[in-house]
Amino acid sequence: MAQISGFAAMALDSLNPSQLAFIHSLPKAELHAHLNGSIPISELQQMANEYSQTSDNLASDLVREGIAKLKRGVALDEIYDFFNLFPAIYALTSNPANLRRATRAVLEQFLDGDRPQCTYLELRSTPRETAEMSKLDYVQAVLDEVERYPASRASLIVSLDRRMTTRAAQECVEIAHQLKAEGRRVVGVDLCGDPQAGDMGTFEQQFHDAKEAGLGITLHIAETPANPAEEILQLLSYAPDRLGHATFLDDEGKAIVRGNKACIEICLSSNLLCKTVAKLDDHHIRYYLQHDHPIAICTDDTLPFRTSLPGEYALLLASPPLGLGLSEPEQRDSEFAELLDEGDIPFVARLLLHSVPIKAKI
Ligand code: 6MZ
C-alpha cells in the first residue's frame, strides 16, 4: 500500500537533495515511539486478514472498522479520536506470535535497511494481560525482539497507562525491575494513555520504586489544556528524566523543567494531527529552542500520524509555513540568534547534541 501522506511526507518532499542527505546522515535517536502505534499498515492488514478467519463476527467487525479507518488515513478530529484506534490494533496484537511479529516489524521499520530511520530506538509499550499472555509474558515477548539488536541500537521502556489501577501499575514496575535485574534491556518507565484519565497521585509509589530500581522515568505531561496545574506539578515531583509533549506547561511548570533540564520529547506531527497545537509556528519547540533546553525529536505513533523520524526532522528544515525553516540561514528568525554561537553546527545537529546524553541518561 502506498504511504499515506502526512505533514512529514510533505515536508520531506519539499526539501532539496542536500537537505535530505543531511537528514539521513545524522545519527538520529528515536526516544518516543509507542509500539502499538508504530506498526506498519501492511503488517496490520495481514494480521487482520488472518484474524477474521478465526474470530467471532463482532470482534472482527471492530477490527475491520478500525483497520479501514487506518487505511483511509484516519480522520483525527482531535486527540480523543486517536485513542479510539487502539482497540482494533490491540485485538490484533493480543497473542504472543502477533505481538512478536508486530514488534519485529516496528524494529525493522526504524532500524533496518540501507538508510535506517534512526541509529538508536527506545521503544515503549504498555504490558497487557490477555487470554493468551500475562503482563510478564508480554514484556518478555517484546524484549526478545528488541534484544535481537545490539544494546547500542534498541532498548525498551515499560509504559504505565493512566487508566491503570495502582495495583496494575505496581505490577508493571515490578516486572520492569525484575527484568532489569535479570540483565534484560528495560531502561525506563513511562506514563501514557488518555491524557485526561486517572488520578496521577495514585502512582507516586510506583515512580518512586522505579527510580530506586535505577529505571529512567519519562512522563506524558500537560498534553491537553485541560490537564490541571496541580496534576502537572505532582508529575514533576516524581523527578522525571524526560517529558512527553509538555505542550501546556504553565510558567511554574516551565521554570521547574528548565531548572532540572528534563528533556522534552517533541512530536510535531502528532501534536498537529491531535490538534493540541494549531500550527507549527505556535509549537512549544520554539520556546525550548530559544532557551537552549534539551529536546529530542520523535514520532510518537508513525501509523496514525503518518510520519517517520526523517519526516519529523524534515519538518524542522522545511520552509514555513510547512516547516520551521531551521536550517535556512536567510530564514533564521532573530529569536534564534542566541543559538548561533556554535559556529557551523547546524541547528538540527544541535538537537542531537541534546538527545545523545539523554539517551545515556535513561
Ligand atoms: C498518550 C499515547 C499517545 O503502549 O500499547 N499512546 N498516550 N499520548 C499519546 N500521544 C497522542 N500515543 C500512544 O502503544 C499504544 C498506547 O500508547 C499510548 C496509548 O495508551 C496507546 O493505547 P502500546 O504499545
From TrEMBL:
Residues 27-316 form the Adenosine deaminase domain. It holds the Pfam family A_deaminase. Keywords: Hydrolase, Metal-binding, Nucleotide metabolism, Zinc. InterPro entries: A_deaminase_dom, Ado/ade_deaminase, Metal_Hydrolase. GO terms for molecular function: adenosine deaminase activity; metal ion binding. It catalyses: N(6)-methyl-AMP + H2O + H(+) = IMP + methylamine. GO terms for biological process: adenosine catabolic process; inosine biosynthetic process; nucleotide metabolic process. Its cofactor is Zn(2+). Belongs to the metallo-dependent hydrolases superfamily. Adenosine and AMP deaminases family. This is Metallo-dependent hydrolase. It comes from Mycena sanguinolenta.
